Every structure is written in C-alpha cells, then in structure tokens.
Amino acid sequence: MGIPSRIRALRSSPTTLSTRFPAFGTVLEAGTLFLLTVFFLFYGLVPIFGGAGLGLVGADEPRYAQVAREMLQRHDYITPVLWGKPWLEKPALYYWRAMFSFREFGIHDWTARLPSASFAFVLVTLIYLHIRRFRRGGQLDAALITASCAGIIAFARGASTDMQLAAPFCIGMLGWYAWYETDRKFWLFDLYFFVGAATLAKGPVAPLLALIIIFAFAALRREWSILRRTVWWPGIFLYLAMVLPWFIAVQRRNPKFLKIFFLQHNLERFATDRFHHQQYFWYYLPIVVLALTPWAVIAIAAFVDAVRQSVAEWRARGAKYHYMGNFRAGDAFPEFLVLWALIPIVFFSLSDSKLPGYILPSIPPLTILTGDYLNRMRERGLKPWLLILHAVLTGILTTFVILLPLHLQNPEAIPPTEAIVAGSMTGFAAAIFILICVYRFGLKRLRIATMTPMIILIFFLFGVGPFFGIPALASTKRNITLIDLTYSARPLSRILSQIAPGEPVAVFGVRRDLEYGLSFYRDHRVDDYDKDGVPAQQHILVVRESSVRKLSQILNGRTYEPLFKYPAQNLVIYSVSARQ
After folding, report:
1. How far apart are the C-alpha atoms of 563 and 560, rounded to whole Å?
2. Which of 264, 45, 311 is nearest to 158 (CA)?
3. What is the rounded CA–CA span in Å between residue 458 and residue 354?
4. Which of 266, 383, 389, 555 has the fewest CB atoms below 10 angstroms from its CB?
5. Looking at beta carbons, which pairs linking 318-325 to residues 24 or more positions away fall under 8 Å?
6. Handedness of CA 399, 298, 116, 349 (dihedral sign)
7. What angle do CA 117, 343, 270 make, to 5 degrees?
8. In 437-559, at which residue ranges do the beta strands (DSSP E only) sit?
9. What CA dihedral angle connects 348, 353, 355 and 361, to 10 degrees?
10. Model pLDDT, residue 4
11. pTM of the full predicted structure?
12. Under DSSP, is residue 508 helix (H, G, I), strand (E, B) or coil?
C-alpha cells in the first residue's frame, strides 16, 4: 500500500491518532492540561503570563502578605509578626511559602499569591494523575473542571490560608483512598504528610476533618478494620515531626499562643460569633453552587448520581448481594467522594462563624465526581434538559461578568438598557455555542465548549488593552483593571507614591481592607483616626466622601487642603498640616 493509500485509510478509519498512538494521546492530554491549568490559575497573576492582574483585596490578603514580609525582614521563621507585634491567628505554612516567594521573586502582590496558585496547580495535576491511575477515562475532565470552576480560580488567586489547607488536605485524602484500594503503605505516606502540611496551614481542623471522613466511610461500609490499619506508626511519627517543632517553638517564644490560637481562633471561632462572621445555617449551599460555576448543574447531577450509587451499593451489601452491571466491582469511590464533599459542609454549617473559604476542601471531590460522571455519560448520553440547564448557567455567568464593570462603576444604578441587552446577547451566544458544539461533536467536546467562554471572561476580567481592560491613570503609567481600581488599594497607593513619596498616610471612615492595603503597599502602617487619633506631623489623609463633613471638628485648628478625589471608591484625599 502506497503512502496516499495509507493516508486515505487513516482518514476513513474511525480511530484517531490518540487511539492508534497512545503515547501521542498521553502527550496531547498532558499538554492540554498544562496549558489550560496555567492559564486559569496564573493569567493576570504572574506578569510573564500577561494581563493586568488585581491588587490585594479584602482585609486578610494584605495582612498575611505583610506578616510574611516582616518575618522575612526579621529572618524569623517562628513567630508571625504584624507591624512588630506577634500575629498568632494562623500557623506558619503560608508565611513560609510567601517568604520564599518574596526572597526569590521580590515583594509584590503576585508573589504573595504565588503560594496559593502553585498549590492549586499541584492539586489539579495530582487529581489528573490519581484519576488516570485509578479511574482511567475521566482524568482530563476531572482535572480541567477543577481548574476552571470559580471557587478554585478565586482562591488560587488569594494571598490567604484557604488554599494552603484545601490543596494538601485533598491530596492527602486521595492518597488515603489509593491505600484503601491497593493496601500499599506507600499511599498512607500521602495522608500523613499532606495532612501534616494542612495542619501547618490552619491547625487541628485538618486532621479532625480527615478523621471524621475516614470514620464515616468505615462506618458506612462496616469495615472497622480500616481505622486500625490506617494507624501507621511511621506516618504518625512523620506527622508529629512535621507539626510539633513549630508549635512547640512558637509556644516557647509566645506563652499566649495556645490561648490565642487554639482557644480564640479555633474553639471560639467555631462556637461563637466573636469575629462577626455569623450566617444562616444554609449559607454554604449557595456558596457551593457559586464555587462550582459554570459546572454546578452537572456537578449536582453527578452528586445525586453518586448518592444513588452509594445507597444501592449499601443496600446490596446489606443483602449480601454482589452485583455487576453499571457498578464497578468493589467500587467504593462514589461513597468516599460523597462523604468527603458533605462532611466539611455540614461541619462548618454547624459553626457560628462562616466564611466562604472554609468549605473549599469540599470542591475537589465534587469536581472529581463531575469528571467521572461525564466520562460515563459519553456512552449513555447526557439528558437534554441537563445540558440545556448547564448551557443556561454558563450564559448567565457570562452575562453577569460582562455587566460587572458597569455595576462596579455605579453599584446603586441599574445598567443601561443597551448594556443589559448586549450582556444578555453575549450570554445567550455562549449558551448556544455550548449546545451547538455538543450537538455537532458529541459530549466529549463539552469541556472545551464550556471553557471557551470562561477563557474569554478571564481575559475580560484580568486582561489589558482598550477592550479587555481599563487604561491606567496617566500619572502611574501602569495597566489596571476596573476591579483593581474599585476594590484594591494598589492604584491609590501608586498615585500617593507619585505625589507624596515618603509622606505619612492616615485614613478616616474607610473600609479596613483599604487601610490594610495601603499599609502593605507603602510598607508602613497607616494611622486610623478612629483608632489611633490624628497624627501630630503633616500627613496625607484618605477619607470617605460621606465622612468629610466631620473633619472640621476632628481637625480643629489644623489646615487641610483637598488634593484630589478618587471616585472609584468614593474617597477624597487631603493634605493635613502639622499640629501647631
């Protein structure tokens, strides 16, 4: 057979290059995973990957980043310090990793977030490798769904401890289940090592959740020997060797550590509303849906399907009946994932203090279930109504993100009709695109059809240029996005550095995240009129417009002149004279 004949035969064959050459398929799959995961987690974060990014937002990001900076400056790896005082709310894992990032790449907001993004990248990669090893077929779906869901994208870009807990905890749980299937002690190493890392990220909640999940799994399957066999002395010694040195060292240097960390920031945080994060009991239900977007509809279907499998298998075990059919022999994975997903949600729903990041460890088991579910549905077909709801949800997300800049510019106003129409049409186009792709090419193209609008939205939120972003203020000569301008202290800090380099800054009536953000970007704690009083020396004052009328009383006898307005955050900036 000549070469043209071979080419025609290859074209007419139902097989693909991936099936004819498995190595090529593996390389293509790994390359796809790498490129898309890097884009979702690092675009707009690390400068070499493009985008304008987003400055540190919220109260926690600038505080955690500042703690890491001060520990690096003091060459102190034991006591977290904020503005010269011990900051004992959290263990040191995030600070250590941020210190390393600062030392290697410089002190920036993106290097403060690199610990979370890198941990998320490792998590996605190990999900792919684990599913490829134990549930071959759905590995790429599971990994990419994890990388492209809103919860992982958001927390992977946060300078916080949430991903420091979730990523190693989830890797440890995957390792434990690998041990359960293979009975090879090697996999127990993952459990003890990574749960140890998670303990150094947030404390005893990591081993507590792991213990509850494993206990519930053993009870459901009536395999109590699992608990005894999980107790592996080399693993226990490894865990203690990782965790105890820092806890002992920080307690010796700071005798109040046990009281502040364990009593106030663990027990009291769970049992009381001391830190003012009280929410309704059902608070985490919409949070989980938002975190799984745009895959939430299919994830819910996958979860319900897994629950049905688990109940059927539980009943079959009770009747001592071994079945085959659609169930894999000895397959306990759906039960394990269901318990793993549910227990953190239920556990933190019982807490009086609730924050979105607490249930981040529940997201990976749900995305894994979703990937496995889609893999099985390729043979049986996805129900049309489920596909339509998925497309509609993706369209709604697209419309929301397109209209977000207008909402940020004027939160109290309804966007113009033409903007609503344009955003709705864009969302409609995204939904139709998904439906057409699946109809034309099959369910195997659902992931790329869904991720295409997500890629465009990431460009829109974190990109630069006349279409994707907002031009920089002329004086800063930097690119910024509208979200940055509206929620971060970074653009304002750049302006202040231009007009008053080195001059002290104070705030009055502003959000505390702006106060902490200005402190980090200027590497100097800003004074708060409400807490610290009015500084005696000449300084720059950042005040909310609604609080300007109070300045005449607070600054009685002092001269204060307006420098400029910062309408993006309803602020006015003044120059205040020294006290006479």
Report:
1. 9
2. 45
3. 28
4. 383
5. none
6. positive
7. 80
8. 505-508, 527-528, 539-544
9. -20
10. 43
11. 0.90
12. strand
